[in-house]
Design goal:
Helix content: 25-40%
Oligomer: single chain
Structural class: alpha/beta
Strand content: 15-25%
Number of helices: 18
CATH class of the domain at 89-205: Alpha Beta
CATH topology of the domain at 89-205: Diaminopimelate Epimerase, Chain A, domain 1
Distance between the termini: 12 Å
C-alpha cells in the first residue's frame, strides 16, 4: 500500500450524526496528553477537537471533509520554541553561505549573487570558519578587492559575527579606534580585519536600509510556507520589535498569515515599556508576553562568556553583551509583571549570571516560567539551580553541529556539561525544543533525531555524542509539543490532541516513535493543519 493520504470529499447523507468540519480516521495518533491516550481518529469543529477515539467516529459524526490517514502517524503540530521567523524569510533572498569550505568559496558565491541581484548592500549568511581547513577568522582583503565600492555584510552561521568589507566599515563609521561594550572589532597587527563580534555588529546594522512593508510581508509569507512544509504550527519568535509584532498581527487578522507566533519583545527600553504598560497581548494566533535578552554571544565565534579562559584562545573569556547590573535590574522589573524573561545564555559564566539573577528576582513567584535560551555550557553546580520556575529552552541540533570543534574550544572536562538535555529535563521537569533557524536547519525531525540519537545527518559519531544526555523519543515529542506550549503559557489551548484544544496537527510518512534510527532523518511531513485547516499537503502518486 502506498503511503499517502486519501482526502475524501463526501456529501452528508444522514441527519442522524452531528455534522463537523473535519474527520480524520485510520491513523496512529500520538496525543501528547498527560495520559498518553491512544486513538485512531478525531473530529474537528470550529477549529477545535471535539472527539478523540476509535474509528467509530464515522458513525457518530458526518462531514464533507474526511481524511483516511491509512495508518500513518499523527502528532500535535510541532512548536519551535526558539527561532527567528521574521529573519528566515529575508534569508531566502540573501547569499546562502551554508557549507562553504573556504573564504574563496564565500567570495565566489557573493560574486555569483551580485551578477544576478546587483544590490547596493549585499547581505549573506551561513559561513563557519570551523568547517574550513584554516579555522581562524577570515580577513576581508579578498572581499575588498572584489567589492571596493559596494557594502558587503556576511553574517556568520550563528548570527553573532559579521565579515564585512572596508566599504561597509566606512559607511558604518568604524575605524581602528572604534570601541563598544559587549562587542569586539577583530584586528590583526592593529588593522581591522572586517570581522565584528556581537554588539559591534550593531554599527553596521544601523546603516542597512530597512525593508519596505511589501518586502517584509513577502518575507513573512515565505517563512510561513517553509514552516508549514516542516510541520511547524507555532513559532516562538526570539526577539522582534513592536513594529514587526504589529505587522504580524495585522497579517494574521487579515487571514493572510495563518501560522501562530509567540513573540519575544526585543530588549529595547521603548518597546519593553510600551508592552509592560499595556500588558500581555493575546489573539487566536499571536501571544506577546515575554522579553528576549542577550547575556552573551555564541560559542562558535568565541563570544560565549566563560568562567575560565577558552582552551584555544588563552587569556580570553568571551563577551557579556548586556551588563550584569542591567540583567539584574530588568529581572526585578519584569518579576512584578506577567511578562516572562527569556535570556540567551550560552557560556557557563553567562548561565551562572542569569540563573542567579532569576533566582533573586523570582523567590516569591509561584509560576513565572522564565526561560534560559540555549543553556549550552553549564557547570555541574549551576545545573542544580534550574527548577520548575526556570525552563531550559534548547536547540538539539546545536549539539550535533558544535561537537566537531567543542573540545578544542572549551576542553573535554567543561564539555561534559554542555548540551546536557537529560540533566536539564530532570532538574526542571520541562524542557522546550527549538532550532534557532536560520542558524540551524528548520526541520524539527532533525531536532528530534539530534536529541534522541545525538548524531548528525551522516550518522556521526557511531556511538552518539555524550549519550548520557540523550532524551527518550517520548520526551523529545513532548519537548516539541506540550512542553513548548507550556513554555508559552499556552498548554490549555495547544500542544496536545485533546478535546477543546486547537486542531493543530501534522501527519508524517514515518512513525518516528517506532522507526529504525536510520529512517528518522528521511521522514517527511505529509500534511499540516492549523485550527483544522489544511495549510500544507504533500501528495504521493
Amino acid at each position: 500500500m502506498s503511503k499517502k493520504i486519501i482526502f475524501l470529499f463526501v456529501l452528508t447523507l444522514t441527519s442522524c450524526s452531528e455534522n463537523v468540519d473535519l474527520i480524520v480516521y485510520n491513523a496512529e495518533i500520538y496525543t501528547s496528553d498527560v495520559s498518553n491516550t491512544k486513538a485512531t481518529s478525531f473530529a474537528v469543529k470550529d477549529g477545535k477537537f471535539i472527539y478523540i477515539g476509535d474509528d467509530s467516529v464515522t458513525t457518530k459524526y458526518s462531514s464533507s471533509n474526511i481524511v483516511n490517514a491509512e495508518g500513518l502517524p499523527v502528532f500535535p503540530g510541532f512548536i519551535d520554541s526558539h527561532a527567528h521567523f521574521y529573519n528566515l524569510g529575508f534569508f531566502t533572498d540573501q547569499v546562502n553561505l551554508n557549507n562553504t569550505t573556504s573564504l574563496r568559496d564565500i567570495i565566489n558565491r557573493v560574486i555569483d549573487y551580485d551578477k544576478l541581484k546587483d544590490k547596493k548592500f549585499i547581505i549573506g549568511r551561513g559561513w563557519d570558519q570551523n568547517d574550513w581547513a584554516v579555522k581562524s577568522f577570515p580577513t576581508n582583503e579578498l572581499l575588498n578587492k572584489e567589492f571596493p565600492d559596494k557594502a558587503v555584510i556576511l553574517r556568520r552561521i550563528d548570527g553573532h559575527a559579521y565579515l564585512v568589507n572596508d566599504y561597509a566599515l566606512s559607511v558604518a563609521g568604524i575605524d581602528e579606534n572604534s570601541e563598544i561594550d559587549g562587542g569586539e572589532f577583530i584586528k590583526v597587527n592593529g588593522k581591522l580585519t572586517g570581522v565584528l563580534i556581537d554588539n559591534a555588529m550593531r554599527l553596521v546594522d544601523n546603516v542597512i536600509p530597512d525593508p519596505t512593508k511589501d518586502e517584509s510581508i513577502k518575507a513573512l509569507l515565505s517563512a510561513q510556507d517553509i514552516a508549514f512544509e516542516n510541520g511547524l504550527t507555532t513559532i516562538s519568535e526570539a526577539g522582534i520589535s513592536r513594529d514587526q509584532i504589529e505587522l504580524i498581527d495585522s497579517l494574521q487578522k487579515a487571514g493572510i498569515l495563518k501560522i501562530k507566533i509567540y513573540a519575544m519583545i526585543e530588549n529595547n527600553y521603548k518597546d519593553v515599556n510600551y508592552f509592560i504598560e499595556k500588558g500581555p497581548y493575546k489573539t487566536e494566533r499571536l501571544n506577546v508576553r515575554s522579553v528576549k535578552v542577550y547575556a552573551d554571544g555564541a560559542l562558535g565565534s568565541r563570544g560565549a562568556s566563560m568562567i575560565d579562559e577558552y582552551s584555544d584562545k588563552k587569556g580570553y573569556f568571551g563577551i557579556i553583551r548586556t551588563p550584569i547590573d542591567s540583567i539584574k535590574s530588568l529581572a526585578f522589573k519584569l518579576s512584578g509583571t506577567p511578562f516572562q524573561m527569556n535570556t540567551h545564555a550560552i557560556g557557563d559564566n553567562a548561565n551562572r549570571i542569569v540563573l542567579e539573577a532569576y533566582g533573586d528576582a523570582l523567590f516569591n513567584y509561584r509560576d513565572p516560567r522564565w526561560r534560559i535560551e540555549h543553556a549550552q555550557v553549564i557547570t555541574e553546580d549551576d545545573i542544580e539551580l534550574f527548577n520548575q520556575k526556570i525552563i531550559p529552552s534548547v536547540q538539539p541540533t546545536h549539539a550535533t553541529s558544535d561537537m566537531y570543534w567543542l573540545y578544542d574550544r572549551i576542553g573535554k572536562n567543561r564539555a561534559q556539561n554542555a548540551y546536557a538535555y537529560k540533566k536539564l529535563l530532570d532538574q526542571s521537569s520541562v524542557i522546550a525544543f527549538g532550532t534557532d533557524f536560520p542558524v540551524e536547519d528548520i526541520n524539527p525531525i532533525m531536532t528530534f533525531y539530534s536529541a534522541v540519537v545525538r548524531k548528525d545527518i551522516d550518522g556521526y559519531p557511531d556511538d552518539g555524542f555524550q549519550m548520557d544526555n540523550s532524551i527518550s523519543r517520548g520526551d523529545a515529542i513532548l519537548a516539541m509539543t506540550i512542553h513548548g506550549a507550556f513554555a508559552n503559557f499556552e498548554e490549555n489551548e495547544k500542544g496536545s490532541i485533546e478535546i477543546g484544544k486547537d486542531a493543530d496537527f501534522i501527519i508524517l510518512d514515518n512513525d518516528i516513535i517506532r522507526s529504525a534510527e536510520l529512517r528518522i532523518p528521511q521522514t517527511n511531513v505529509v500534511a499540516t493543519f492549523v485550527n483544522g485547516e489544511l495549510v500544507f499537503n504533500r501528495r504521493y502518486n
